[in-house]
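Raw record, unedited: Type II toxin-antitoxin system HicB family antitoxin
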Amino acid sequence: MYRFLVVIEKADGNYSSYSPDLPGCVATGSTHEEVEQNMYEAIVLHVKGLIEDDAPVPAPQAFSEYLVIEEHVTA
């Protein structure tokens, strides 16, 4: 089993996603659900390709956190 962080971003009219631990592994979709499914499939293919090429599957190192900014921020 593998577990990779996936970043999903809202773009103009669609969604895009990538995994910081898998350079070049990206996906898009018209909805949040579609981009999740497409990214899942992209990661499966990416990892299978690494295994078939006898290349190492990178160990996940990326993580995410939300930071709460409580002070009033002005431009």
